Structures are given as C-alpha cells and as structure tokens.
Amino acid sequence: MPDRGKDLKQWYNQKAVDNRGIMTLSLRPETERAIASRVESGRYSTPDEVVLEALRLLSERDRADDERRLQELRSKIAIGTEQIDRGQVTDGNIVLDRLIEKIKWEYQV
After folding, report:
1. Per residue in 81-98, is it b (16+ CB within 10 Å) or e — as a string?
2. Cβ neighbours of residue 24 under 8 Å, at least 6 residues apart?
3. CB 109 within 8 A of CB 103
4. DSSP string for residues in 43-97
5. How far is CA 67 from CA 63, 72, 79, 81, in A?
6. Residue 89: alpha-carbon gap to chain centroid
7. Other CB atoms within 10 Å distance of the CB of residue 17
8. What CA–CA distances, in Å, run from 78 to 26, 72, 73, 75?
9. How many Å apart are CA 60 and CA 43, to the nearest integer?
C-alpha cells in the first residue's frame, strides 16, 4: 500500500517547490479572479496574503470541527458511563453475535 504522506512529500519536494522554496500552483480562472478581486479591493496586498488568510480560516474551522467532535465524543462517553452505572449494559459476546447475524443477513452469507 502506498504511503500517501511520503508520496505527497515527494511530490512537494520534486514538483511543487522550486529551488527558492516557492510553490507554484495551477488555479482555475474563477479562483484566480477571486484572489485578484481581494487584492484589488485593497484589503490584501498580495495574492500570498489572500492564500495565507484562507489557510488561517481553514485551520480555525478545522480546530472548531475537532473541538465539536471531541465534545460529542465526551458526551457519548458520559452517557455510556451513566448507563453502565445504572446497569444498562449488554454482554459483549451477545453484541458480537448480533453483529455477526446482521452481517450474514445483509450479505446473504
């Protein structure tokens, strides 16, 4: 199985970055226009500033998504812990048997 991280790093090192450490990208015309429009508005000085701001916003969104998922997981763990404390549990072997039967039924095995 190919190592996607290694492949991406190799592509980055060989193709995307020149000897000055500058990455060249091919953009669709609408993306170029969007970047140019933001530079022309005066809010950003260079296309690089637009891209950096976009990356900052993506990182911010990713962090918020990660935090939301973490809170959901903590909530599910708390619910499960409360159920265990109340004795609302099912033996693991029973759960596995049910899953196996469900898979057999779905795949007509």
Report:
1. eeeeeeeeeeeeeeeeee
2. 16, 18
3. yes
4. S-SSHHHHHHHHHHHHHHHHHHHHHHHHHHHHHHHHHHHHHHHTT----HHHHHH
5. 6, 9, 18, 21
6. 33
7. 13
8. 47, 10, 9, 5
9. 20
Query: Whole-model pTM?
Result: 0.59
Judge contact between 44 and 53, C-beta under 8 A.
yes
Closest listed residue to residue 47, CA positions, set 59, 33, 67 = 33
Consecutive H or E run containing 2: none
- Encode the chain (109 residues) as per-residue pLDDT tens digits: 456 666 666 656 655 666 677 888 889 999 999 999 999 999 999 999 999 999 999 999 999 999 999 999 999 999 999 999 999 999 999 999 999 999 999 998 7
The encoded tokens of residue 39 equal 């530079």
